[in-house]
Design brief:
Blueprint lengths: L2 E8 L10 H12 L8 E5 L3 H5 L4 H8 L7 E4 L5 H14 L5 E8 L6 H9 L14 H16 L3 H4 L1 H10 L13 H6 L2 E3 L2 E2 L9 E9 L10 E10 L14 H14 L8 E3 L5 H10 L8 H6 L16 H5 L6 H13 L13 E8 L4 E9 L2
Parallel strand pairs: 2-3, 2-4, 9-10
Antiparallel strand pairs: 1-7, 1-8, 4-7, 5-6, 8-11, 10-11
Helix pairs in contact: 4-14, 6-11
The structure holds coenzyme A.
Coenzyme A (COA) binds next to helix 5 and helix 6.
């Protein structure tokens, strides 16, 4: 069975003090239901609603609020890859013929938590017994990774800034982005230190947001709406903690998920029009590009600085600002990436449009490449 996205819905990412987790999920879900196709399943991607909103059981809760009472509904969790893993579940339900249409909503409310609790919540993606126990935050682990990456590859501080610079430029014309301001490498390298050598502008922000996508079978494709085909969906896992791996700079989970995804989709790497990558920190964006083979090892930041990954470059990345500037409401991010790929492939990306976009890749990670989900989407023929 061929699988398509029929419609998507987004909320702006940022501080939503006057909206609850459910309000955000419903807002995005309603927008995605505008295609008038009735879903027969609801799947929610979310990482830490129990901590941020004292709320679990999100499937039934959001289903009731969306008028979908009676439908099967449940939550999928895989840390920051919760959104894409929820989408993977929807894809497989439709692909197998078990469902005709699944509404997937990624939602996260992070700003209601005090900063130290956000840090604690994010650290739950790492081992409680070993990594959390010694007090290592996610930013701290990525700081160590960035130090190693710079040492091993000779990447300079200014070169590391090149991916955040692209993200911020693309986000200027993205209405849903958290930070819509262009920056220079100097802004990154002079911003305050978060975890040496990572600075404020190397890091994805903390924000609230929800994104939704309606996944349908080929039987529901019609002229009445714009459809995008999901050509493949691949999930891989790695050694749980980064320090357990033979090569911390190789991101084997991203590499394997990507290779499997493009081979299943039968799309040669050279034909990919754009990639939405998981740049939670500038260093994770760089290593991801190298793991997928778009840049040689150690050259991702140099390639970015030379324009390869800009909106008008050879392979545009993060076309609406990526995690760094569009924002990273963790459990929702994977669905934001899918929604952005949908906008590109249906030529609804406005000023952010990649000309002639035919195939798009999305890469969403939980932990530091611990769970990685890669999707390949194509414009419907
Ligand atoms: N990039 C740029 N500016 C940022 C920013 C970011 N990532 N995060 C916050 N800011 C800005 C705010 O807008 C605010 O600006 P203002 O003073 O002009 O209003 C200022 O910096 C302070 O904001 P605040 O919310 O107090 O920041 P913070 O110091 O509490 O948090 C980080 C900054 C980087 C520590 C936080 O965003 C963070 O932890 N990011 C990583 C999240 C993460 O690990 N995600 C999961 C990865 S898989």
């Amino acid at each position: 069975m061929r699988v398509f996205v029929a419609s998507v819905g987004l909320t702006k990412i940022g501080d939503h003090w006057n909206k609850s987790l459910v309000d955000l999920a419903v807002e995005a879900g309603r927008k995605a239901l505008s295609s008038k196709i009735e879903p027969d399943y609801l799947i929610i991607g979310n990482m830490f609603s129990s901590l941020a909103a004292s709320q679990e059981h999100l499937g039934a809760l959001v289903a009731d609020s969306l008028g979908l009472k009676g439908k099967p509904a449940f939550k999928v969790e895989a840390a920051c890859a919760s959104g894409a893993t929820a989408f993977h579940t929807a894809y497989n339900l439709v692909k197998s013929g078990a469902s005709e249409s699944v509404l997937v909503i990624g939602v996260e409310k992070m700003r209601d938590l005090e900063p130290e609790y956000v840090s604690q919540a994010l650290a739950m993606a790492e081992s409680a017994e070993y990594t959390q126990f010694v007090g290592a935050s996610f930013a701290a682990l990525n700081g160590l990774l960035a130090r190693l990456y710079m040492h091993e590859t000779g990447t300079t501080r200014d070169e590391l800034s090149s991916i955040p610079v692209i993200d911020h430029k693309n986000a200027v014309s993205a209405w849903h982005a958290q930070f819509r301001k262009e920056i220079t490498p100097e802004v990154v390298s002079r911003s305050s230190i978060v975890a040496d050598p990572l600075r404020l502008f190397d890091c994805a922000p903390v924000g609230d947001g929800a994104a939704a996508a309606l996944v349908v079978s080929e039987r529901l494709v019609s002229e009445a709406s714009k459809f995008v085909e999901v050509l493949s969906s691949s999930v891989c896992t790695n050694n749980f903690s980064i320090y357990e791996r033979d090569d911390m700079l190789s991101f084997s989970s991203t590499r394997e998920a990507f290779e499997k995804a493009i081979s299943t989709a039968s799309v040669p790497k050279g034909k990919i029009s754009f990639a939405e990558i998981h740049d939670a920190f500038s260093v994770t964006g760089a290593i991801s590009l190298e793991a997928m083979g778009f840049s040689k090892k150690g050259f991702a930041c140099k390639d970015a600085a030379e324009g390869k990954y800009s909106l008008n470059g050879e392979l545009p990345i993060n076309t609406f600002g990526g995690l760094k500037a569009r924002g990273h409401p963790v459990g929702a991010t994977g669905i934001y990436q899918i929604a952005e790929a949908y906008l590109q492939l249906t030529e609804q990306a406005g000023e952010n449009q990649v000309k002639g976009a035919r195939y798009g890749v999305t890469q969403n990670m939980g932990g530091i490449d611990t769970t990685t989900v890669v999707h390949v989407l194509g414009s419907a023929e």
